[in-house]
Amino acid sequence: MELEFLLIITSFLLIGFFYLWLRTVRRIKKINNILKEVCTGNFNQYFRVEPTSKNIRELSSYLNRIIKEVNDLEVKAKRTEEERRKMVSNISHDLRTPLTSLLGYIEVLQNDEILEEERGECLNIVQRKGKDMLDLIEYFFDLAKIDAGDITIEIKKIDLSEVVQDTLLDFYNDFEKEDITPQINIPCSPLYVLGDPMSIKRILGNLLSNTLRYGKKGKLVGIELREEEDWIWVDVWNKGVTISKTQINHIFERTYTGEYSRNPESRGNGLGLAIVKRLVEMQNGNITVTSGIEGKTVFSFSLKKPIKAM
To answer: How many domains does the chain have?
Structure first.
């Protein structure tokens, strides 16, 4: 009796182990088939396993995380490639337009019968178109250097008030030429931040150029420094051309800003705002934009205050 009982128990155990082995094999085959699908580029496959052993559950969980990360990288790569193609297309368009115009004026200048006054006017236009093309090419290479990590940022304690005032002096003639008196609100006392002086000047230069470009009609631009607990904010604003909510959502994207700024009257290329955003972020800062309130467009960026010594 005891021998028969042991044989029955052993048989049941063997059947149980065999059943578990078959279930495990089926699950491993299922995992293997899904991995084959993933290897062919189908990242919509995920492992959904019924309650099973802890090891199988952990394996499925880790594999799902890997698939999600690979899928995210694939989506990001496609988006980056699409943005690159769109940007190249925009830049090609923006280069072709002034180049075509420039060649037309050069052809006019080759006419010996042109009046001296008209010749001078044509030369001024040729110079301006050439500068537009040079600015666009420089913006393009600056973006390329930032993307490649070829730009050096030296974060140190600096007086932001001094940097802003120095940059404003560089724009004195531009404001005077447009008959604009900027409204400046900068504290007399130093406002220290952690940042790179040259990068901050580049940020301010691009934003002030925008205020001049889009604030001509409003004849009112300004710059203000304000202090928060851990941050110093710089507001650069103008009254004139406002930006819709749809445009604001994409204003710092290099491809979209190229389209938004392609305005014959303003002659902007838009890449400057993409550079501004990258430079602010490289200094651990933030940048925002609001438009339409009292007809005012405000670009605001922040930089961290130095940590006070205990």
So the answer is: 3
